[in-house]
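pasting for ref
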Amino acid sequence: MPSRTVFVVSDRTGITAELLSHSLLSQFPDVEFNQITLPFIDDDDKVAKAIRQIDEVADSEGHRSLVFATFVNRQYLTRLMTAKAKVIDFFDAFVGPLEAELGVPPAWRIGQAHGIVDKARYASRISAVHYAMDSDDGVNVANYPRADLILVGVSRSGKTPTSLYLAMHFGLYCANYPLTEDEFERDELPNILQPHRQRVCGLTIDATRLQQIRAERRADSDYASLRQCRYEIENAESLFRNSNVPYFNTTSISIEEIATTIISKLGIRREMLG
């Protein structure tokens, strides 16, 4: 498989460039990419050092690297263009057409995307993260009336990371509740969740994948056995169906995709906070 080195270079965090470059490069599955991220390249010395590093890789590999850049400082971008690389500037790709359509020039202010522009929204996001942490794994059920969403599923089905992602990126108050064998006997939504059933969402996962995840935590235990995983998943899905609870399979999709799917399917307010 051919390989290429990919640099993500930015005068800020580089998060935007990382996300966009990942989406683009995923369309080339027959090429192996080695990514190097260079954030906060925000002075002359750092720009020069980044160019040297890019050039050294090009010389050692015998071909130029790929560089994805988001530079508000256009002088730094001009210098980066001299590197032994194919430089793709995301701002040029998108800001230029927007400027032409809107009829006004861009501000070119550093930190607009990821800075604390709206303090109220930022505070709301932090509050949501604290709520998710305080309401993790069935803790503090008395706080469930405040929840925008309650994720339910067996142990290690993706509840905690999804809850935190929804809090961090969308400001949602998201609790999560673990299903146990006691609840399977009744085959219906636990009593503690009944008053909040309109905000309950189930997560499921392929039993084989669940067994792999649990084995990393407790190898050779009954908890991690394929038999136990199958038993719990089958009963959890039966409980969701009998209780008319929407549920989503987390086996082969990312946390980001799980969260977006939940928001889209359930019609939950979507406020991307950056």
